[in-house]
From TrEMBL:
Record-given protein name: Chromosome partitioning protein
Gene3D superfamilies the record matches: P-loop containing nucleotide triphosphate hydrolases
Signal sequence segment: 1-17
Organism field: Actinospica acidithermotolerans
Region spans: Disordered: 235-270
The keyword Signal is assigned to this record: yes
Domain of life, source organism: Bacteria
InterPro entries on file: P-loop_NTPase (IPR027417)
């Protein structure tokens, strides 16, 4: 399963949410976070990680090799054991790596999406019109846009969603919203958006700091508000994905003409 997270503007907490969702994932799959932010990564600095392995080394390997395990070979482990592929901090390097990973390395993303034993949570950063991350979103089962539930952010979302929905529909990627922090409540936003609002993540400075590499009592992390909300978002996403898979008729029962890529999978780059 491939879950893409992105923002439109204003750093609403995409990287933090990606880590929370992955760290608290409720299923038994292998979980991987990929920092695919064309503006450059933050994880290496936050966790004092070595530059290699990471997004750059993966981008070189994925030109020849698209197996899911290759992604894990280019991950490093955070305290607590979560596998993470960190982007270089410099935008030029991160964007260059993403260009390779969405060119020659493109099949890797569909392979991650298709693997039932794997959950890849991809931090696509801020989604500018020309971002290479659109091609990752095209391969995702679901793409969640994070935004603060403020007037400006909701207005931006409302005016941007149609274009994003057209792209997503073309590639069978489900698009959803996640609100981050206080403001309008979820029901108010949902009433004004034609897209499902999956969660409202609470403002939780303590959990965000721990998820951002601050030293502290990590064993209490799961009891904090943000991780709890991330865990229930993960449970809803997992259940939704299982229902979507169940709804697919087995390929052998399908007429030849109907066979093809499964719903919620993306077959071509947008
Ligand atoms: N739910 C939250 N509650 C409180 N603070 C948060 C929360 N989420 C993120 N933060 C804090 O906000 C800051 C930005 O978070 P983060 O790096 O996750 O945002 P981002 O959307 O990935 O930003 P960028 O677009 O720059 O990559 C960090 O200091 C982080 O600790
Ligand atoms: Mg970020």
């Amino acid at each position: 399963m491939l879950i893409a997270l992105a923002s439109l503007k204003a750093s609403p907490g995409v990287t933090t949410a990606a880590l929370a969702l992955a760290a608290l994932w409720p299923g038994g799959q292998q979980v991987l976070v990929v920092e695919a932010d064309p503006a450059g990564g933050d994880l290496a600095a936050r966790f004092g990680m070595e530059p290699k392995p990471g997004l750059v080394s993966l981008s070189a390997a994925a030109r020849r090799e698209h197996r899911v395990q290759v992604a894990f070979e280019h991950a490093q482990q955070l305290p607590g054991g979560l596998s993470v592929i960190a982007a270089p901090a410099a935008a030029e390097q991160a964007d260059g790596a993403l260009e390779l990973l969405t060119g020659d390395g493109l099949p890797l993303w569909s392979n991650l999406a298709r693997d039932p034993e794997v959950v890849a949570v991809v931090d696509c950063g801020r989604l500018d019109a020309g971002s290479h991350a659109h091609r990752i979103i095209a391969a995702a089962d679901i793409a969640l846009l994070l935004a603060r539930p403020t007037l400006e952010e909701c207005d931006r979302l409302a005016k941007s969603l149609d274009a994003l929905a057209i792209r997503a529909e073309a590639t069978n990627t489900e698009l959803g919203l996640v609100l981050a922090g206080p403001g309008f409540d979820r029901d108010q936003v949902q009433a004004n958006m034609r897209m499902r609002v999956w969660a409202q993540l609470p403002h939780d400075r303590k959990a965000a700091a721990l998820l951002g590499g601050a030293t502290g009592k990590r064993r209490h992390l799961a009891a904090l508000a943000l991780p709890k909300a991330a865990r229930s978002l993960g449970a809803e996403l997992a259940a939704h994905h299982a229902r979507a898979d169940d709804a697919e008729p087995p390929a052998e029962d399908m007429p030849e003409a109907a066979k093809g890529p499964a719903p919620h999978r993306v077959r071509s780059a947008a």
